[in-house]
Amino acid sequence: MKALSGIKCIVFDLDDTLYPERQFVLSGLKAVAEYMAIYGVKSDEAFDGMKSILDCEGRSYIFNKYLQQRNMDLLLVPKMVDVYRNHRPIIYLYEDACQLINKIYGNYALGLITDGLATVQWNKIRALDIEHYFDIIMVTDEHGESWAKPSELPYAFVTERLGMQPYQCLYIGDNPYKDFIAAKRMGWHTVRINRGYGEYSRCFNDEQYEAEYAVCNLMEIYDMLM
Questions:
Q1: What does each C-alpha distance from 95 to 18, 75, 132 come to in angstroms?
Q2: How far apart (Å, rounded) are the C-alpha atoms in residues 216 and 220?
Q3: Does the pLDDT of residue 156 top 80, yes or no?
Q4: Taking each helix axis from N to C terminus, what angle separates 21-35 and 77-86, rounded to the nearest 10 degrees?
Q5: What is the pTM assigned to this prediction?
Q6: Residue 82's closest CA among 158, 28, 38?
C-alpha cells in the first residue's frame, strides 16, 4: 500500500468525486419536466423524452433537441435552462465519500475546489449538506474565468488561506484533463478516484496530467494516510 505522509490538508473536487453528477442531471431534467406541465406536456413523458436524448446523445443541446422533437417553440429553451440551473437538486454523496469525510473530519483541514456556475455548485453543496465539513470552499466561478481549473490560482489560494505548505496538501478528483496538472506543479499530492463509471472513467491523459496515485474507492486513501 502506497503511503501519503505529512498530509495536513485534504481538498476535494465535487462532481463525480463526492457524488455522481448524473444524479444532478436527472434531478434537473425532472424539475424541467415538471415545469413543462404548464404547456400541456405530461411530466413523466417529458422526463422520459429528455432522458432518452441524454442516454443516446449526451447533454449537449438536450432542451433544443427535445423541443424540436415535439415541434415546440425553441424560445422555451432559456426558461428550461433557468429551471435546470436553479432547482434544488436531489443528490446524495457516494458511500465511500461519506465514509472518508467522516473518518478524516477533525483530523485534517478540509477543502473543496469546484468549477461550474456558482449558483449551481452552491445548490449542490447545500443539497448534499456538506458545507459544515469544510474549512474552505472554493467555487472558482465566483473569482472569474481565470480561476477555473487547471489554473494554479485556486490551489495557491487554498494553500495560503489555510497556512499550509504545498507538500502538506492532497487534492482528490476524477478529471484527468484539469484536476491534477496545476496541483502537481504547485507541489501538492494528488489522487484520482476512478470508480469505473462516470464521465471521465474511461479517459486517460499524459503523465503530467494524471494524478500521482489512482484509487477505485475513496477509503483506499484513508489507508494510505495511516
A1: 9, 40, 18
A2: 8
A3: yes
A4: 130
A5: 0.94
A6: 28
